[in-house]
Design brief:
368 residues, alpha/beta, L-arginine/glycine Amidinotransferase, Chain A, 19% helix
């Protein structure tokens, strides 16, 4: 039997990856976790149900082409198995009219070393999303004797898990900034909650965003689950919708971080990077002034990139300023058409989760 699962960071040479699918993706009904994500002026306001078939077709075309490009570079690509997302789901505590989809595996599965961990998830509509990845995880488990397959405790997601203030339609942007600065997010501390896409893996250290989808109890659960890892909590007061970290703070290679200039990491949280001779640079401005139609995410998906190795980066092809910045940093830049897939769960980093990267657990922050 061969070793199938191994990944300790975001930049070592990528050899095996999961790329999502857009099949059957839905816009879920508004729920407590989602309400703060949909501004009143959004074209998604008041809509839910299956996404238009023509948008699914073009998103899948871009996801398929992305997969073929990766395979052409010698990277093995696996794909999830979509389920029927256009159905009502329920637990003893709640019910919701539809699910979401399986385009962004980064949100659901956290790979660390030889372990693949199913996250709790914070949206009711995404409670069963892990099922799309079960066939793959079972296959890896059967074929790799060292693979550890774990599931975080499924949350109840009752009303106690969400702050009611965020459900007020009259919240101003200034109020959002004030609450975020005070670390008051839509998720409460009722139970452990985390999405895998809030975790940055850097060898012996995990940097985790405390925000809308990951609470302190979730971070504490991760800390206990990975006792050999050093855990660091990050906050970005400039982001009124702190949902996932990978359009805000992106590691490119050992010693170099990309930071969203509108969501700067506070000085006190930069210390560990500066003490260990890391450089934090501002990301280039996005090429677009608004997200695509029916998209949850911000224009800063421009910096949601996938590192194939410490010298090679995949960037959405229309993000010309971000590609130019990487070119000046001496990266090989691979332009990837992907903007039509954004509404289904994010950009290139979101649409993938690692199975295998070369390399081992290194200490990139020895001065702590």
């Amino acid at each position: 039997m061969t070793k199938i699962v191994n990944s300790w960071n975001e930049w070592d040479p990528l050899k095996h990856v999961i790329v999502g699918r857009a099949d059957g993706c839905c816009i879920p009904p508004v729920e407590p976790a989602m309400a703060p994500k949909v501004p009143e002026e959004s074209d998604m306001a008041g809509k839910y149900g299956p996404r238009p078939p023509e948008t699914i077709e073009i998103a899948n075309e871009q996801l398929d082409n992305f997969s073929k490009m990766l395979e052409g570079r010698g990277i093995k690509v696996d794909r999830p198995t979509p389920i029927d997302f256009n159905q009502k789901i329920a637990t003893p505590d709640w019910e919701i009219g539809t699910m979401f989809g399986c385009m962004p595996p980064r949100d659901v599965i956290l790979t660390l070393g030889s372990e693949m961990l199913e996250a709790t998830m914070s949206f009711r509509s995404r409670w069963f999303e892990y099922l799309c990845y079960r066939p793959l995880l079972q296959k890896y488990f059967n074929e790799d004797p060292d693979m550890k397959w774990e599931t975080a405790p499924k949350p109840r997601l009752t009303e106690k898990s969400y702050r009611k203030d965020y459900l007020n339609d009259e919240i101003t942007l200034d109020e959002r900034y004030e609450w975020v600065a005070k670390k008051e997010f839509v998720t409460t501390e009722e139970e452990p909650l985390f999405d895998a896409a809030d975790v940055l893996r850097m060898g012996k250290d995990l940097f985790i965003q405390h925000g809308f989808t990951t609470n302190r109890k979730g971070i504490e659960w991760i800390s206990r689950h990975f006792p050999d890892q050093r855990i660091h909590i990050l906050n970005f007061p400039g982001d009124p919708f702190p949902t996932h970290i990978d359009a805000t703070f992106t590691p490119l290679r050992p010693g170099l971080m990309l930071n969203n200039p509108e969501r700067k990491l506070p000085e006190e949280q930069r210390k560990i990077f500066y003490d260990n001779d890391w450089e934090i640079i501002d990301a280039a401005q996005p090429a677009h002034n608004s997200p695509p139609p029916l998209c949850y995410s911000s224009v800063w998906l421009s910096m949601n990139v996938l590192m194939l190795d410490p010298k090679t980066v995949c960037v959405e092809e229309s993000e010309v300023y971000q590609m130019d910045q990487f070119d000046k940093l001496n990266f090989e830049v691979i332009p990837v058409p992907f903007r039509d897939a954004y509404p289904f769960g994010g950009a290139l980093h979101c649409a993938t989760t690692d199975v295998y990267r070369e390399g081992s657990r290194e200490d990139y922050f020895p001065k702590q």
